[in-house]
Every structure is written in C-alpha cells, then in structure tokens.
Amino acid sequence: MLIEIWSDVVCPWCYIGKRRLEKALATFPHEVEVVWRSYQLDPGSPKEAVDTVADYLGTKYGGGAEAGRAMVDRVEAVAAGEGMIWRHSQSLRVNTMDAHRLLHAALADGGPALQGDLKEALLKAYFVDARNVADHAVLREIAVGVGLEEARVDEVLASVVYTDEVWNDQQTAASLGATGVPFYVIDRKYGVAGAEAAEVFTDVLRQAWEASHPSLQIIQADDACGPDGCELPQR
C-alpha cells in the first residue's frame, strides 16, 4: 500500500497530521510505504528571514505580534496534545523550495525511509528548535545528519535540480483535488484532506486494504476431502 502525502515543512497541521497518521500506522497490520510530496504553502516567502511567524500572522490578519502569538499558541496547544512541545512563535517565515529539493534528493538516493527521516528532521528543526530551514548551512547539517552524502547535499543546494519536481508535485496535488495541506492519497484511490484524527486514518487504511485485497467468497459443499479424510456417501 502506498501513501503519498503532500505537505510543507513549515505547515503546523502537516506535523500534527504526521503524528496522527503514525499513531494509526502503529496498529495497522499490513506493510505501508510512505512517500512525501512537495507543496509550498507560501512560494513567495523570502529566502532570507525577515520576521517570525507570529509577527507575520499579526501583520497579515491584524492585531500585531500579540494577536499572531495567540494564533500560534492555539496550534501549539493542539501539538502538545500529540506529544510535541514547539517553539513555533519563534519560527521564521522563510522559503522552503530548497528543503523540498533535498527531500526529492533523499527519495532518489535512499528511498522512502531516508526521505522520511529527512522530513521528520526538517519538521523538528522548524517547529521544535525554531531553526532557519532556508539557510543552506542548516539544511546541510540536517540532511547530512540523517544520512545524505555531504557532496550530494552541496550539489543540490548549489543548483536548481529538482525544482521542476517540486512544481510538478504541486500541480499533481491540484489535479487530485487538493486545496491545501496536509493531503493524503492512498493508492491513488482514497484521499484524506487535513490532519484528521488517528481513528479516521485507521478506517481509511482498512477500507483501502480491503478494496485492494478482496476476500474470497466461498460456496461450501459437503462433498470434499479434508485433513480427516473424505466424506463418502452412505448406502
């Protein structure tokens, strides 16, 4: 079973949804492959940090930094309910294109496992450690730390490789009906929009598995042989 997840590394609900999906997968008895797809929530965000998320939200929606902090506090409370303590009010509003390009490199070089490790490390860096995930030194440290070759990381960051793949992911999401993230697609047949509860993921996973592995309907007859022998007609 393949689960494709469109998300951004600066999306709070994407991190919360990741934890909820992981909770569902922990009790799911079948093998699942998870692949992360790119989706930039704010492609116009700056490559150089200008303000924090709290300051930006306060400016965008009004009320100043205090109002922005209140918005962040609410989502941090939800994250705490999933066992995560964030410093999201200190997170910087930055562009995530280079982070997404590295995620594509991780998938190409090490498959879904390595890509998953990098995704978790980037989310933690941004939400828990309030690090600048647009800064190349930070990205290099994180990527090499999860197992990407340093030369490969430098090659990606010094180029525009995988830029097309990032945009293609975003276009695919739109074609599948996504209007935001997180957006989960199972075997390209079932979709979940938003950070649903673990129970919802469990139900969808079960439905998807049963649809792709239908049980055999057996018509049972008495005339059959088994471990104890064969039933013979009585005279």
Question: Can you walk me through this structure?
Answer:
This protein has 235 residues and is an alpha+beta fold. It has a single domain (2-49, 92-230), classed as 3-Layer(aba) Sandwich (Glutaredoxin), CATH 3.40.30.10. Helices cover 51% and strands 10% of the residues. The chain contains 8 helices and 6 strands; from the N terminus they run βαβααααααββαββ. It has helices spanning 12-25, 53-61, 64-81, 97-128, 136-146, 150-157, 163-175, 198-212; strands at 2-7, 33-38, 183-186, 190-193, 225-226, 229-230. The chain has a 4-stranded mixed β-sheet with strand order 2-1-3-4, sandwiched between helices. β5 (225-226) and β6 form a beta hairpin. The radius of gyration is 23 Å and the shape is elongated. The model has no long low-confidence stretch (mean pLDDT 94).
Write the layout of secondary structure elements.
Layout: E1 2-7, H1 12-25, E2 33-38, H2 53-61, H3 64-81, H4 97-128, H5 136-146, H6 150-157, H7 163-175, E3 183-186, E4 190-193, H8 198-212, E5 225-226, E6 229-230
Level-2 CATH architecture: 3-Layer(aba) Sandwich
Number of extended strands: 6
State the order of secondary-structure elements, H for helix, E for strand: EHEHHHHHHEEHEE
Count of alpha/pi helices: 8
Widest beta sheet: strand line-up: 2-1-3-4
Low-pLDDT ranges: none
User: What form results from the Cα inertia axes?
Assistant: elongated
* CATH third-level topology: Glutaredoxin
Q: How much strand content do the residues show? A: 5-15%
Largest sheet: 4 strands, mixed
Instruction: Give the name of the CATH superfamily.
Output: Glutaredoxin
| Helix percentage range | 40-55%
